[in-house]
Every structure is written in C-alpha cells, then in structure tokens.
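Handout, section B. The chain below has 655 residues.
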Amino acid sequence: MAFVQFSQVSLAFGDRDILKNVTINLQTGSKVALTGANGAGKSTLIKVLAGLVPPDSGSRAVQKECRIAYLPQSGLTHHGCTLREEADKAFEFGYELQRRIDEIGGQLERGEGNTDSLVSQQAELIQKLEDSGWHRREAAAESVLLGLGFARTDFDRDTAEFSGGWQMRIALAKALMQGPDILLLDEPTNYLDIEARSWLEQFLQNFKGGFLLVSHDRYFLDVTINEVYELFNGDLKRYPGNFSHYEKVREVELKTLIAAYEQQQEEINKLEDFIRRFGYKATKAAQAQEYQKKLEKMERIEIPESLKKIHFSFPPAPHSGRLVFRMNGITKSYDGSHNVLDNLELTLENGERLVVAGRNGAGKSTLLRIIAGEDKDFSGETIPGAGVQIGYFSQDNAETIRGKETIIDYLEARAPLELIPKLRDMLGAFLFRGDDVYKSLDVLSGGEKSRIALLQLLLSPVNLLVLDEPTNHLDIHSKDVLLTALRDFGGTVIFVSHDRAFIEQLATRVLELKPGQFKNYPGNYEFYMEQLAKNAEGTVVEPVETTAAGSKTSSSAVVSTSSTTVSTAAAGPLSWEEQKRLDAERRKAEKEVSRLEEKITELEEKKSGLENKLADPAVYSNGEKAKAVQREIEELAAQIEETTAAWEAAAEKIS
C-alpha cells in the first residue's frame, strides 16, 4: 500500500506559524478534503506534502516508488506541441519502464550479468508496465481529455492556443493520466464547467489511489471525500465523514468557543470605547492606560471565518410588474455562419431565480450580456417589463475598478447610507478582512477586483440581477452569505454558475442551451438533473423543447417507453391540411399572447402610477381623493388578474 506520512511537521514564515506539529497520513484509498480560511496555509501544506517546500522540522516518510502528482491552483502553461503530444507526456513513467525493459533485453542478448536475475527484473518491470495501463494510454488520454471538456478537434491544436483556464485543464488532465499513487489537487474545479466537474467527481469516486484536495465547491466535496482535515491557526485536525457532516460537527464542537469569542469581543469593544473617550482626560488617563495594557496582554480568541455568522440584505428592490423581461426570436452569431443563439424565446416573471445551463460555448454568457444590454448586435427583440432596473455582474466588471482609492472609501462612496455601517462585515464576508479594506484599488488582483465588483452591484437598488459566475473567487463561507442574500432578494435573478450546491439551493427554473436549441425546465435544478438522467435512459423527453425553428413540444406529447403510453409520433405524420390548420391556430394564439402581454404591462404601469399618486400628501390627506384613487387601483388589479388568466389560457395553446 502506497503512502505519504508526515509527523510533527512545523513551518513558519517570519513570526507566523503556518504549520505547528502537523501529522497527516495519506495512503491508497484516502479521500481527503483540506479546509481552512483563506490564508490559513492550505496551499503551503499541499506543497510540503508534494515535497516542493521543505518544513522547518518534523519527518516526512514516502513509500519507495510511491508516485505523487500535484496540481497547483494556477500558473501552469503549455506550448511547443499539440494537445495530444502534451497529454502523452503524462505517461513518462511508462516510457521510463519501457526503456529499462529494453536495456535489460539488450543485456540478455549480449549475455551480460546474471541471466536469472535479469529475467526476474524484466518480468517484474513488464508486469508493472502492464498494471500501469501504459499500453492503453491513447484511449486513457482521449477519455480524460473528453471528460474535461476538450473536443476531438482540439487534440491536434497547439497548446499555446488555449486560454489560461484551458491551460489548467490540460495540467489537471496530465495529473490524472499519470495514474499516481497519491493525487494532490489544489482547487481542481476552479476552471471547470459543471459537466467537467461531474466527470471529475466520477473519476475521483473510482480512483484506486489516494487523494487530498482543496475545493470551495461543497457538493463536489460531499460526493468525493470521506474525511476532512481542517487547518486553523497552524493546527491540523481530522474529521471523518463528508464535508457537510464536518460542518455540523465543527459547529457543535465550537459553540462554547463562539460564546467565549463573542463575550471577549464585547469586552474588547467596551475597553476600546473607554480608551477612545477618556484617554486624553487627566482624571481618567491612568485608568485608560491600564485598560490599554489589559488589551495588549489579552490572549485573543479566534474562530474560523466559516463560523462567523455574517448576514446582509440587498437594498429594497424597486417595484416591477409581474412580467419582468421577454425575449422574442433572439438570434446571435459571431462569425455570420454559426448561430450561438438561434430564435430563442424567454419570459421572466417577477421573483424567479433562473439558472442558464449548458456546456462552455453554448451561449450562456452571450445571453446574459444581451439581457443586460451590454450586447446589442443581435436579431430579435428584448422587452423589459414596467419599472425594471437591471444590475449586471460578470468577471469583466473587474476591469473598470482602478485608482488610488482604498477599498473601503470606494464602496462607501457608492453604498446607500443605511448600508455603510455594515460595509466592514460585508467586506469580511467577501474575504477582505482586517487591514485588507485599506488596500488601494490599483494593487488588487483580478479575483479581488471581481469580488469588489460583485459587492458593489449588491449594494445597488435593482430588481433584476443578471449574474455571470458570481461564485468565482469566493470561498464556501462567502458563497453561503451570497446565497442567503440572493434567496431573500425581493426581485428576480437570472444567473450562470458552475457550483452545483449553489445552483441547487437558488434556482427555481432551468434554461438549458444547446447548439441550435433551448429547453425550459419548470422546476429546480434537482428536477432538471433527474430529467437528464431519464433522457439518458431513454425513458422520457424533456418537458418543453424549443428548437431553432421555434416549435415547441409540451409535456403532454412526451415520448415514453411505457407500454401504456402512446406517443403522438407513433400515430404517424400529420396531413398537410392538418399541419396547416395547426400552424394557423398557433400563429393566432401567439398574436393573442403578445397582445395580452402588452395589455398586462400597460395595466401594471397604470396601477404603479396610481400607487405613486396615492403616496402624494395632496391625495392621501384628502379622504375623497384617496378613496377614488384606491377604487381605480382595485379595478386595475381586477383587470390585471382577468387579463393574466386569459394570457395563461392563450399561452397554454402554444406550450
């Protein structure tokens, strides 16, 4: 059994202890997550495990010929050969075995050395080579590359052509293809879409060796690992079970510590307040100095950031109508021949949390840019509802954040007054803690700027949030804070994310994009995944499918393998006359839906105007005027309800 074992390992950077007498044992079958706050030293510990950083003290034991593969968070690039050739470098272990086998073969041919010994060595190496899967390396490389999202057409591309995210996918693929005894993966999901993450989950579940990984994706951790090591203040502690179980155990375990922490914080605040108020008064100066000494000598209690409960709320979402946004016949092409979006139809209603799903390149970000008004080069029409105010976030927002201002000054200048007292807590939730808030904008990394851009958006009073990968650069705790805020948000959200746990807890509807078509799933993400699984088994067709031609198939026309269900397809093709009649009815219904949507918008605008009028002192202070306006509002509400019912009936005919 292969193993890597550390005993009483310590490492310090200056006066800060990164590791204090740490002990850890990784072996065949280990499925370990390493967790801890940002800056706790997780990446450093992995480098020590990989043998890249020597510890100050302690012992490191690695079984003879135990092979370790290490993947850093970022920074790896490849060039000078094709993807296929680069992937083949992962099998250097097998090539080395083959060279040793050939050398022994040469010795045997020349009659050199002890024949029996050489034959035995060669047989052992041949068996080791066979067990490594080296003879099946081409199939293995193809399987891993396709699983991580590469297309077959990418195999002969020069690796220098791939972007930074795809470069890290190449590095991950090579680490997996090495077939190591121990895998050390630092944030392997950072550059993966949800399909590639799902594939990696399956790979790790079936992996015969041992692995340790760092990830901020709770779902990914829950389905891949069975023990957690927490690094906190230089100490390492083991917790058996998956990540969710660790969180529950850790929270219970630290209740006493949290209570002591809160009590100490209260005492610190009182002492600091006294010093601030009376430090310069002669009658209180001596006492203030004593309090200052007490503060300096106090042994501060610390708790993991993940257990500090930070909550914030959005500014109230401005009022909007029930229909928030509509898209009719949206078609988008970048090259004039291939449509990224093809005749897409979409209606967003107030309060929905719509996730856009699909593989990389399916048009998810393009769709969000069109909704946000950032991309106007398309055909079709976009129709915002009455009173809709859009807030848009993408990683590109970071490029606009620059200057000599500090983070705290930048956000205070843009935050509503009522949220300014909460800014430090909110910055803490987004990984800016302590003196970080005084960093100049110009010295921030791309990830830090993205977090600032996201927080800036969340401070804005909007009612339609368009979010492209909002969880990138956030740890699990920060994602939880964001998730809670979005679930409590009073407006509508359309978003793209590759974090399955985040999607499952937020999405109320799924829009799936594929080349030439789109599909609506009126349910949460779990329902969507169930439908995909059933489709893969051939038991059901998606509930609503819209093709590039714009035709829709309702769930009443679902194809089933059940012998008791007769599909519409089984009845044979429709006659030309029948098809013509159905098309005419559809066109009529679509016109009626469009007319009713316009009427609903018009009525909601009138109702909103009257509600604003009712807030006018000249109206609400006059009883008769107020009653008259209230009657009009009630009449409009009844008309909206009646028109909405008609709209639903008309929409049913074309669904």
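Note. The first strand starts at residue 3 and ends at 13. Compare this with the example in section A.
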